[in-house]
Amino acid sequence: MAGAGETSWCFSQLKGTVEEDVTEADIISTVDFNHDGELLATGDKGGRVVIFQREDLFDQQQQQQARGEYNVYSTFQSHEPEFDYLKSLEIEEKINKIKWLPRHNNAHFLLSTNDKTIKLWKVSERDRRWTGFNLKDDDGLIRENNSIQSLRIPHSTPMELMVEASPRRIFANAHTYHINSISVNSDVETYISADDLRINLWHLGITDQSFNIVDIKPANMEELTEVITAAEFHPKQCNLFVYSSSKGTIRLCDMRAAALCDQHAKIFEEPEDPSNRSFFSEIISSISDVKFSHSGRYLISRDYLSVKVWDLHMDSTPVETFQVHEYLRSKLCSLYENDCIFDKFECVWNGNDSAIMTGSYNNFFRMFDRTSKRDLTLEASKENMKPLQVLKPRKVCTGTKRKKDEMSVDSLDFNRKILHTAWHPKENIIAVAATNNLYIFQEKPPS
To answer: I need a labelling partner for 187 at 20 to 30 A (CA). Which of 26, 126, 256, 295 fits?
Structure first.
């Protein structure tokens, strides 16, 4: 897998409506590939989960299997709007996160969550049905006793393939505040869910009990200074997890040390540069996402203006810092007024941890190659929708003199933003959510 800086990216697919009118319920709120990249799931603000499956095609010229497109595999309503009568609060159906479980049989399992309730879904295929019952006919109606003349042995017959999604577990009533993260443990028996002030540990088979392992709620809420923004389990060591905060810190916790992990094992925090201190310093230092590398050695964290790479062996300073849109530093005042400064951008690793991707405004998304230190700005646009059309790198200028292919920082559209992205775990295929559309881009195949 080549790094992002050396790869030519081209358009592959566009999912969603092409119309300009956007319905709030259709806005994509999370994207996630499964562990082998054959399935891609999206969740939206309407509580729906759409799963796309990659179809294998046979290449007649090469006489071998070719990689096909992602097509809709299953669509189901995961969450419905609810009302908390005790607190007189509406609970949105919006899907905040989707996480796949590793596959162990023919069925697929995934966790989806809204603000309060987590559900474990089983997605399975059925291509046979049972017929030839004694007490009921093929339509399921009860047969008259006097019409039964002989004993029949039920048998299975082929039927049209049907994909079923059924909720196997519902984990509810454990979070007072809005859930922002879920993460499945490497033991595939437990998972964590995090809200603004607490992190709970669940067993996948037990719905009525969870263990509170982090609680940062102060006795007096007026003393509240930070909230939890993201949490994730280590990909290989089942006792380790991290959580990030609105104060720009990342805490590594070891569940072997104590039942309540309020005392962290390590804290990753970069000292603030006094020369950059401003009214907005605290807001833009808030971490919106944190992800372990696939190897488990590194962490990436996304704050408002940058992505930082941390080595788990060195907590004093990040080993790499990539500026995402430094040109917005002069625009922080207007971004504060239109609330864009509170946008929560996600970040992802590629399959071999050599590159990082994250979103920006104007439907731009950024890629950083850790080896060559090159960076790339690309745009998810409906103007680049020809099959295998190579994406042109985009550039933003801050000065008055603008080159031909550059874009002025003043002409950026802050309503078009890439918050959610996903990278195929084994290949250079990326999924980028832009409002109600899902763009799929791939590495340009050799000609």
So the answer is: 126
